[in-house]
Design goal:
- Chain A is α+β, with helices and mostly antiparallel strands and 146 residues long.
- Chain A is built from 4 helices and 4 strands, in the order βαββαβαα.
- Chain A has a domain of 92 residues: Alpha-Beta Plaits.
- Chain A has a 4-stranded antiparallel β-sheet with strand order 2-3-1-4.
- With 100 residues, chain B is mainly α.
- Chain B has a domain of 53 residues: 30s Ribosomal Protein S18.
- In chain B, 52% of the residues lie in helices and 0% in strands.
- Chain B is globular and about 50 Å long.
- Classes of the chains: A alpha+beta (146), B mainly alpha (100).
- Chains A and B meet through strand 2, strand 3, strand 4, helix 3 and helix 4 of A and helix 1 and helix 5 of B.
Chain lengths: 146, 100
């Protein structure tokens, strides 16, 4: 049994593709996700954007972001399908659940720390202490050794 | 024996330090370097998003190379995360690999 994880898929479609083709591909992606018991979380169309460099002969592309949950097999299938399509000039699937969980945990920990500081009456958002006396100390030690 | 060795090693390190100081010609006091702090730590950024090209842009100056930590002052943890974010953004043509 493989684990269910959250992934982000971004694909870039060539600028010639029609709105219809974009929605078609989106529906196709959705159906693949559904077939593998995945779940759609969010979808975003960033629209036409300039590429930072040429991909093939393209200088622009339509970006689409899909956030979904599913298994590794699902990403494999999506990857295979997107590779085949000529209208998709670039795509990337990134696993995000671990990073988001980690971010959430650090955020929660910080919140707890802030609460604790308030409870103790300490200043919140402690500024790192300056340590510019270090150099002077070292010099004194050196002199003492000699 | 041990004392002798220790004193020698300390003397060696000191001369090296002096040589470096002389090279730069920096006054010993009065000059202070501003301590660089990690931008992500101060802003309390937990997740560096590869999709946010605008946010990543200051870390890939003119030649589109990743800005080293010694210049930007980003802490080690955030530099690692920044690195993966920049590499992902490059794959999606959100950031350039190089410029000429």
């Amino acid at each position: 049994m493989s684990h269910v994880r959250q992934y982000e898929l971004v694909y870039i479609m060539s600028p010639e593709t029609t709105e219809q083709a974009i929605t078609d591909l989106h529906a196709q992606v959705e159906s693949i996700i559904a077939r593998y018991q995945g779940e759609m979380v969010k979808t975003e169309n960033w629209g036409r954007r300039r590429l930072a460099f040429r991909i093939g002969k393209h200088r622009e592309g339509t970006y689409v972001l899909e956030v979904f949950t599913g298994t590794g097999e699902l990403t494999k299938e999506l990857d295979r399908r997107l590779k085949v399509l000529d209208s998709v000039i670039r795509h990337l699937i990134v696993r995000v659940d671990e990073d988001l969980r980690l971010a959430e945990r650090t955020r929660a920990r910080r919140e707890v720390e802030v609460q604790r500081r308030i409870a103790r009456g300490l200043p919140v958002g402690g500024r790192p202490r300056r340590s510019d006396d270090d150099g002077g100390d070292d010099d004194l030690n050196d002199r003492a050794e000699v | 024996m041990a004392d002798e060795r220790r004193s020698r090693s300390s003397a060696g390190s000191k001369t090296r330090g002096n040589a470096r100081g002389g090279e730069k010609g920096a006054p010993r006091r009065g000059m202070f370097r501003r301590r660089k702090v990690c931008k992500f730590c101060t802003d309390k950024v937990d997740y560096i998003d590869y999709k946010d090209a605008k946010m990543l842009l200051p870390f890939v100056p003119e030649r589109a190379k990743i800005l080293p930590r010694r210049i930007s002052g980003v802490c080690a943890m955030h530099q690692r995360k920044l690195q993966t974010a920049i590499m992902r953004a490059r794959q999606l043509a959100l950031l350039p690999y190089s410029t000429d």
